[in-house]
């Protein structure tokens, strides 16, 4: 007992000493933390990339082992499936970028060149719509159209100026771009090493945990399984949802002859990776892009996408994806809001399965404690 008390006392003293040192030299500690975080970003990104690629690689390995048998085939299973998985992601990325970037550049150029004309067409469309025009005149006076024109011109000028500043800053930030590319390269290399030796890494970590913290082996394995199941189900489910919604959007836009069909459908599909609110982000961008060509088409596109999302969300999504997140809707919205505030789009993607894992762990612990209480009672 005395030995245990001394151990806890020593731990408390060390924690207090470190805390006092951090508060005393906060500026230095902050700089050290920032440097450490910046240096670890490629490895964190590489580990995350390895996790996502591993889902596809594991699928390839299952198919490979069914098709090819023998000692040599078994030895080649990992390198072959690793190359196939990474090549699949690379080809998909190149195809998507090849489709999206040219149309985005074209739409930005058209937006800059046709901004005055687009504003005039928008005002003309409002003036020709008697219901909308009367409503605006009722709230803003008889000169509502002129006031609206002035406001839109002001906002358009601000947006174009901001866009120009952003593009200029992007061109001037050669060092930052090079650093980002280097980090991406390091992340890819690190992910390849992790995937190539994932079993050995798992065995080494388990040996360390068993040796130094044997009591934590079972709880850690339980937590790992829950987090793995939540993240894997989330990525597979949301990817399926994104592909279905993006494909339906593309087909519908082709049928109704909407402009920018490929770019908008890809943006809608990618943004659908974020549950609940994600698809609306892509829809907003799509409406803005189509509005540069035709205000009426943009409105019809909005009607089409709302109907499509109702159809897809109520009929297709529950059957194809189901409750892959395992989190009530209220908590999903909370996770998206907090994750977006802390980490932007990446935070939204990670926050949902993370909170789902915490939700399952708490639910599991509550059920265990309730069972213990019933046994005692």
UniProtKB/TrEMBL annotation:
<protein>
    <submittedName>
        <fullName>AI-2E family transporter</fullName>
    </submittedName>
</protein>
<dbReference type="GO" id="GO:0055085">
    <property type="term" value="P:transmembrane transport"/>
</dbReference>
<keyword id="KW-0472">Membrane</keyword>
<keyword id="KW-1003">Cell membrane</keyword>
<keyword id="KW-0813">Transport</keyword>
<feature type="transmembrane region" description="Helical">
    <location>
        <begin position="266"/>
        <end position="291"/>
    </location>
</feature>
<dbReference type="GO" id="GO:0005886">
    <property type="term" value="C:plasma membrane"/>
</dbReference>
<feature type="transmembrane region" description="Helical">
    <location>
        <begin position="7"/>
        <end position="27"/>
    </location>
</feature>
<dbReference type="Pfam" id="PF01594">
    <property type="entry name" value="AI-2E_transport"/>
</dbReference>
<feature type="transmembrane region" description="Helical">
    <location>
        <begin position="298"/>
        <end position="317"/>
    </location>
</feature>
<feature type="transmembrane region" description="Helical">
    <location>
        <begin position="39"/>
        <end position="60"/>
    </location>
</feature>
<feature type="transmembrane region" description="Helical">
    <location>
        <begin position="329"/>
        <end position="359"/>
    </location>
</feature>
<dbReference type="InterPro" id="IPR002549">
    <property type="entry name" value="AI-2E-like"/>
</dbReference>
<keyword id="KW-0812">Transmembrane</keyword>
<keyword id="KW-1133">Transmembrane helix</keyword>
<comment type="similarity">
    <text>Belongs to the autoinducer-2 exporter (AI-2E) (TC 2.A.86) family.</text>
</comment>
<feature type="transmembrane region" description="Helical">
    <location>
        <begin position="242"/>
        <end position="260"/>
    </location>
</feature>
<feature type="transmembrane region" description="Helical">
    <location>
        <begin position="80"/>
        <end position="101"/>
    </location>
</feature>
<feature type="transmembrane region" description="Helical">
    <location>
        <begin position="177"/>
        <end position="196"/>
    </location>
</feature>
